[in-house]
Amino acid sequence: MCATSDALTIGPCLMSLLSTAHDLVTLASDEVEQHGGNHDSLSPYMTGGAALFILLFLLWITTRLNRDR
């Protein structure tokens, strides 16, 4: 179990967690530098338009089901 008696002391579990987090951030930044972070087939206008359409469609469904009787 990873518990320390002093609140100001950084325990081995916290150091391990920080080390793991640093390794993951480093790995993610290497991937972004290597691949650029964007995929050629993803258009931001198409993605945004599709998201807007889906949200408007869900709003339409909600308003149809929420009629006062």
Quick take:
This protein has 69 residues and is mostly helical.
Shape assignment = elongated
Helix content: 55-70%
Radius of gyration computed on alpha carbons? 24 Å
Proportion in β-strands:
under 5%
Query: Would you report the number of β strands?
Result: 0
Helix and strand composition category: mainly alpha
Secondary-structure topology with pairs:
Blueprint: H1 12-35, H2 44-65
Structure overview:
With 69 residues, the chain is mostly helical. Helices cover 67% and strands 0% of the residues. The chain contains two helices and no strands. The chain has helices at residues 12-35, 44-65. 0% of the residues are buried.
Keywords:
69 residues, mainly alpha, elongated
